[in-house]
Design goal:
globular, 2 helices, Peptidase_S1_PA_chymotrypsin, Trypsin_dom, serine-type endopeptidase activity, 6-stranded antiparallel barrel, mainly beta, Thrombin, subunit H, 130 residues
Length: 130
Amino acid sequence: MIRTVNKNSTECYVPGWGVGSIKDKAPTAADRLYYSELFIVDIVACGHCAEKTLCAMHPSMQEGPCEGDEGGGLYCNGYLRGIYAGSFNECTGAGATFGDIIQLGPWIKSILVWEGDGEIPLPLPEGRRL
C-alpha cells in the first residue's frame, strides 16, 4: 500500500523533549519542547517500515525526532496520526517510524477496555513478547 501526503497540502509535526545533537554538538537533554515538520512518505522510501506503521521524513533530512522521543505523537492537520517508534537515523528526519493509529485503532480500543485479566492484548496476531 502506498501512503503519501502531498507536502503542499498536509503538514505534520512531531514534538519532543528527547536527547539530541545539533550542528556537531554533543547530545544533550532538551531544556524546552522542540518540534520538527515531517511529511508522510511511501513506506518503500523509508526502507524499514513494517505493517501498520507510517514513515515520515523532514524535507531536508536535517532534523527529526531524537532519542527519548519514543511514544510521542505525529500530528497532521491538527490530529494525532502516529506514535513515534524510532529511527535508524535519530535526529535527522531521514525516515522516522510511527505506529499508524488508524490501522492500530482496533488494538488501541481493546487496550482501553482491557481490565487486566489474562495477558495484555497484542496489536498483531504474530506479535511477540520480549
